[in-house]
Amino acid sequence: MHAELIAMAGYLNKYGLISWFSQTVVKVVGGLGLSWQMSFGILVLLYFYSHYFFASGTAHIGAMFTAFLSVATALGTPSY
């Protein structure tokens, strides 16, 4: 059952929805001019509430983790 959900999450990435979402979050949150700590807090909330768009936690992590990691890096969150 999880294979189908992961495949659907992969298609979200293939068709550009995940990259569009990432770019939009960078523009909106980055445009607020907040520190990286506040930006990271907003990202955590967005990541948490975005799981309601997915049928399982596995599909959510598979589709969104890399996107949110790249957004956090783009907003200045340290990698250490």
Automatic annotation (TrEMBL):
This is Uncharacterized protein. It is a multi-pass membrane protein. Its main location: plastid. It is found in: Plastid, Chloroplast inner membrane. Belongs to the SLC13A/DASS transporter (TC 2.A.47) family. DIT1 subfamily. It comes from the Eukaryota. The keyword Transmembrane helix applies. GO terms for cellular component: chloroplast inner membrane. One of its GO terms (molecular function) is malate transmembrane transporter activity. It comes from Gossypium barbadense (Sea Island cotton). InterPro entries: CitT-rel, SLC13A/DASS. The keyword Plastid applies. Pfam families: Na_sulph_symp (PF00939). Keywords: Membrane, Plastid, Plastid inner membrane, Transmembrane, Transmembrane helix. PANTHER family: DICARBOXYLATE TRANSPORTER 2.1, CHLOROPLASTIC. The chain crosses the membrane at residues 28-49, 61-79.
